[in-house]
Structure formats: structure tokens, C-alpha cells
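Input/output pair, single chain:
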Amino acid sequence: QVQLVESGGGLVQAGGSLRLSCVASGSIVRFDSMNWYRQAPGKQRELVASITSGDMTHIADSVKGRFTISRDDAKNTVYLQMNSLKPEDTAVYSCAANEYGMLPYWGQGTQVTVSS
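Output:
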């Protein structure tokens, strides 16, 4: 069992930046990918960014050029750097760890609110 804890959310003005962290209770090297999702009220959950164990990254078109994902395996941590934030980025951001053939592990989420 692995616990994921997100932090770094908050209230920021449009154009501002936030860095989210997802700390795992154990090694993240075992996971095929670490992922950031978001869900805004009344909307479907959206995959924002993912990073594989081989450091390959995927960034959703909606945030490409503004968000980056990175990992620090020594700290069992995945980061989501969010720049040039827009009001439409307002959502609960959650971290998920995927291992082939297994159900993903999820964190509890962190709220990001971007004011106009």
C-alpha cells in the first residue's frame, strides 16, 4: 500500500504560478507512471500531465507550454509546475500512481483556485 499526499495548492491571481508536490510513502520507481489529474466542478476528470519511470513526459494540450511535470525519485516526489495560470485552471488537482496490471493509487487532492 502506498499513500500519496499532494500539497502546494491555493489561491493565486491569473498569470501567477504554483508548484504542486505529490509525496509518496514509498518508492515511486516501481510505478510505470506518475500522473497529475484535475477535476473542476461539473466537469470530467482530465489528465493534465504524466511522467514515466523513464522520464518520458506527456502534457495535455490545454496546459502545454505552461505546465511542466518532474520527479525526484530520491524524495519519492512528483512535481507539477504551473505557470501563467488562468481562471479555467481552477480545479482539484490529484496525483495518481500507475503500475501495470494494478489499480492506481490516488492522493486526496489539492485545490487550486485562480482568480481573474
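The CA atoms of residues 29 and 53 lie 6 Å apart. DSSP finds no helices and eleven strands in the chain.
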